[in-house]
Amino acid sequence: MHLNDLHLHRRRLLVAGSAALASLLTACQPGTPAWHGIDISGADYGRDFSLKDPDGRTRTLADFKGQAVLLFFGFTQCPDVCPTALARAAQAKALLGAQGGRLQVVFVTVDPERDTPDVLKAYTTAFDESFLGLYGSPEETAALARDFKAYYKKVPTGASYTMDHTALSYVYDPAGKLRVVLKHDQTAEQYAQDLRRLLA
């Protein structure tokens, strides 16, 4: 198998595995309307984060009180999953209309070695001026990923490397409670419908 085909196959497996993992992390909520994503209300993980933004300020969940926060783990050299996820988030924000101003998208790099503050800022704002990239030390990144039950791994590619990682978006409601996981195969409209419920 060609190296590029192998990487694509690995990413497809990872996306599928991420959805399966998210299904295992949620409990059924009888009597509540169905989400397009996965309802994780009451989750005992991913309660907060503390990382630096491109301007060097430490940001936590409390900074975004009153907003829905969509958090995604990725890296700027990701060839397909990350740009797709951020483009879909930007489309969903546009579909929200006036409510879009109450959505904060946070992109946490799993590749702080290459994703410098300037690189992160340029990458996230290319999708939407309000999107925020956050980074930490390798140790902080690993600890946060464990707290979210998220997976990532450095994969050598000749003289360089790529990153395999979870392809899920974690969403907090405006009260700062982790409520839903958006799956990578959802449409922008399905993202927007789930976000509308949280912002209502």
Describe the protein in words:
- This protein has 200 residues and is α+β, with helices and mostly antiparallel strands.
- It has a single domain, classed as Glutaredoxin (3-Layer(aba) Sandwich), CATH 3.40.30.
- The chain contains 5 helices and 10 strands.
- The strands form 3 sheets. Strands 1-10-9-4-5-6 form a 6-stranded mixed sheet. It has a two-stranded antiparallel sheet with strand order 2-3.
- Strand 7 and strand 8 form a beta hairpin.
- Helix 2 packs across helix 5 (188-199).
- The termini are far apart.
Mean residue pLDDT: 89
Number of helices: 5
Question: Quick one: biggest sheet?
Answer: 6 strands, mixed
What distance lies between the first and last C-alpha atoms, to the nearest angstrom? 49 Å
CATH architecture descriptor name? 3-Layer(aba) Sandwich
Write the layout of secondary structure elements.
Elements: H1 3-25, E1 38-39, E2 50-52, E3 58-60, E4 68-74, H2 81-95, E5 103-109, H3 117-127, E6 132-134, H4 138-147, E7 152-157, E8 160-165, E9 169-172, E10 178-182, H5 188-199
Parallel strand pairs: 4-5, 5-6
Antiparallel strand pairs: 1-10, 2-3, 4-9, 7-8, 9-10
